[in-house]
Amino acid sequence: MSTETLPKLSTDKRSPNDPVFVGVGEIPSGRYPDRSFIGDLTEVAHRAIKDAGMTRDDIDTILLIPCLHSFADQADLIFSRMVEELGLSRKAKASMMAHSGGSTSDNAVRIASGLIASGHARNVLVLQAERWGSADLTEMVTMLTLNGIPQEWEQPSGITFNAIGAMIHQRYMEVSGSTPEDMASVCVTLRDWANLNPNAMYRDRKLTIEEIIASKMVCDPLHAKECPMLADGGAAFVMTTAENAAKHSDSWVRINASGGCVSHYSLGQEVDAATLGWKVAADRAYTHADWGPEEADFAQIYDSYAAVTTIGLEGLGLVPPGEGARFCRAGHASPGGKLPINTNGGLLSAGHTGVGGGMALLVEGIRQLLHRADAPRQVENARRGIIGGSGGSYMDAQVLLLERIEKGEIQ
After folding, report:
1. First to last CA, the chain
2. In what order do the strands lie in the sheet with 251-262?
3. What is the DSSP string of 298-354?
4. What is residue 51's three-state secondary structure?
5. How many CB atoms lie within 10 A of CB 325?
């Protein structure tokens, strides 16, 4: 069925069963060898529940986002350990896991929304933590060298995730005419935001274009300081019904529309590495929405490499084709700019927490719309935001259009 013939999703803000976001939790990203995996999950869970104005006994469903640092830790999650850790044994209806790489958080939202809208769940806690920063570096490098890269064709040629990022980077530069300095400016933009985020890995370190260009070449044309650093971290959010949200809060965040596109498994099968699946996903979202990119107050777009973000900016219709990097270099996406992007610092400066990189961006978007970010990071009067996630070898593009709702608007 074509996008044009799909029924338009409801944009009725008065639906009492409408799934909405009411609270978020997060802990600092970086290297924290003294913290524990389960301790991190428990901490962000309590923070999100408190931020939602609830108690742990209000939670009836836990939806987990997997970790990549340890199969044993992930197995504990599959076997419902967090239900027990949070004191919800026999109280919780379900504990489950979703996984689609860096786009997992976007898809977890869809699962939680379906459970709530159908009446199968009332209050869903979505949880994520990662120990990449403290894990064995050799094991993590091996994992990122092999997992998700086709064994038959690409692994034998030495393809790694840095190489995939470099090929996308190079292709985008060729098509857009962007210079190395233009691309480096994206990383500087994200660092400027990270300097305002107390949870960011690089909250205390400045970055310049000159410093990036002078850093060693990792995989041509990517320099070392254009690559994400593996980090420990954790984030969580709570979703409930609009009716229940009105009992706990004067404002909440709803999903106006969403769209997605799975474009490839092997990058060698991607028809255009300079666009990926972003425009298709965006068009599918905007078809069902009652507002468009020109009305967004900010965007949080997956950014393990600068080109992934610039391609996303363009595909989402936020900037003209080919202008993403120059848009950032002109300061338009920076603090005080006309379109803030990745206001937590993104994966490149807040820290790459594995599958949680997309989760951190989503949590930041919800936080901005709830007006709970610290000044001066808070986007003034933020009402609408666009979230964009991507997983694996940028195999997909997932788009959520989120908006702030205040109790007075539905009475």
Report:
1. 37
2. 94-97, 61-64, 124-131, 232-241, 19-30, 251-262, 396-406, 384-389, 298-301
3. EEEE--SSHHHHHHHHHHTTSS-TT-HHHHHHTTTTSTTSSS-B-TT-HHHHH-B-T
4. helix
5. 30
Alpha helices in 37-103 (DSSP H): 37-51, 71-78, 81-85
Pairing type for strands 124-131 and 61-64 reads parallel
Structure-token pair, residue 393: 């070898």
The SS3 assignment for 127 reads strand
Q: What is the pTM of this model?
A: 0.95
Question: Comparing C-alpha atoms, which of 51, 4, 38 is closest to residue 245?
Answer: 51
Identify whether the C-beta of residue 231 lies closer than 8 Å to the C-beta of residue 130. yes
* Cβ atoms < 10 Å from Cβ of 276: 27
Residues in Cβ contact with 316 at an 8 Å cutoff, skipping those fewer than 6 apart: 278, 279, 282, 293, 299, 301, 386, 388, 399
- Residue 108 — very low, low, confident or very high, per pLDDT cuts 50/70/90? very high
Q: Which of the four pLDDT bands, split at 50, 70 and 90, describes residue 142?
A: confident
Please state, in angstroms and rounded to a whole number, the distance separating the CA atoms of residues 178 and 119. 49
C-alpha span between 348 and 227 (Å, rounded) = 7
* Mean pLDDT, all residues of the chain: 94
> Can the peptide bond before residue 376 be classed as cis, meaning omega within 30 degrees of 0?
yes
Question: Greatest CA separation found in the chain?
Answer: 62
| Strand-pair category, 124-131 with 222-223 | unpaired
